[in-house]
Amino acid sequence: MIGWRICSTVVLALLATASLAAGPWNAEQDHADMMRQLGIKELRPGANGDPTPPNAANYDPAKANPYPIWPDLMRMADGRPVTNAAMWREQRRPELINLFEREVYGRIPSGVPGVTWRVEATDREYFGGRAVMAQQIVGHVDNRAAPGITVDIRATLLLPAGARAAAPLLVMFAPARYPSPSQPNPVEAARLDAALKATLLARDVTFAAIFAAHPGFEFVKPGGFLTPPPEDDRVTKLIADGWGVALLDTATIQADDGAGLRQGIIGLVNKGAPRTPEQWGALRAWGWGASRLLDYLGTREEVDASHVGIEGVSRSGKAALVTAAFDQRFAMVLIGSSGEGGVKPHRRNFGEQIENLTGAAEYHWMAGNFLKYGTERGRLGRRTAEDLPVESHELLALVTPRLAFVSYGIPEQGDARWLDQQGSYMATVAAGRAWTLLGAHDLGRGNDYRAATLPPQGTDLLDGELAWRQHEGGHTDAPNMSHFIAWADQKMGRTPLP
After folding, report:
1. Which helix (H) or strand (E) holds 137?
2. What's the pLDDT tens digit per position in 418-457?
3. I need a surface site. Which of 135, 156, 321, 453 has the fewest CB within 10 A?
4. CB 265 within 8 A of CB 157
5. E-strand spans in 258-362?
6. Are strands 303-313 and 332-336 parallel, antiparallel or unpaired?
7. C-alpha to C-alpha distance for 134 and 122, rounded to whole angstroms
8. What is the helix (H) or strand (E) element at residue 489, kind and residue range?
9. Residue 248, phi then psi, degrees to nearest 5
10. Are the beta carbons of 247 and 231 closer than 8 angstroms?
11. Could you tell me the pTM of the whole model?
């Protein structure tokens, strides 16, 4: 056995070296390699948003539930009912975690290297009239085992300046940049402008004629080089309420494409070799990065580490849910328009389908094993969503009894029907059994998902630790942010800043 381990390690290293030497590895090659590992001969095409082809997405509610019986959230795989909180925590939750890791999102391999955080820069900013300390922070992942692959996790940390107590904080999957950078004053702007013009003239004296023809032109005005980007209203609302915010850049953890699976944290752990079918995909990798940021936030006295949440929209909404499901240290999650692979049920034939996530464009989000459920022909035979041992309501239930806010918009304003708002509401209703079992509160609408009907847009189902609200906007959670903040404050027993 020891000899096999040594041999397999050498083989993997040789394969990695050979593949990297052969040139760029694209998503189609990687996808084909995973199909080969799983013995898949043919995958079904995903649903098409165009209504004309044979595989056009279904939007007829009468055809939406070909597999109406979902896995029973409160029944163990051996048939035993889950009857109390201890049984949930000690038996059912670990069982579900194992199934989601093996079949859907992937396992994090052992031996993932450590992360060392540093503050790269600090800036004073203002949001809604409140002073904020903004810091660019970088988490360097130890890459001594694979020096050719560098992973530097980037995040922007925004903390209320002069706060008297540690602040709750929301980690948001977003580009890590200063949202409202401080700008040079008139004297500083004039110096910068003069220096830029002098540098250009030193390189090319013909610029003098251009500057003479446009004497009023300035590279740097008192407001800065360019008009600063508009503030993210969600961040402004959080800061105004006294929260901290961390903007975590997923691209610096793992690329959002199949070609990048041999780079990023997944590639670093595998030393450039391809994934095996049970290994993690990008959603789980982004969640791992959020957990490492949470490790760091626990060292900052300005942060109330017991009240840190995670947020995301669309594919980042999927990642936010996955993060909170697997890491119980996150006290809350705001799940925005997550669709298939998030809150949307796999067994619903409405809009996006499993087959869209098993194709070459989006398979990298998931474990390789997930491809099995889009198989038309292969070693294991034809498989569909009905063969999945888990369903989306069970993923959401893994957050219990913590705070979970499910957010959607409306199709008429851009939150496409593709996301299946009705199905996602059904899954949220079904997940509520876990909250009530553990002594918390669900939506208060019962738990019969088959009879659940999407409430009118704007209905506030915010009384429980599990919450739902469909806002008036499109593919964003911005209109729900003020509702989320008020709901979370109330559940934390927190008084917002005046």
Report:
1. strand 130-141
2. 999 999 999 999 999 999 999 999 999 999 999 999 999 9
3. 453
4. no
5. 303-313, 332-336
6. parallel
7. 6
8. helix 481-492
9. -105, 120
10. no
11. 0.89
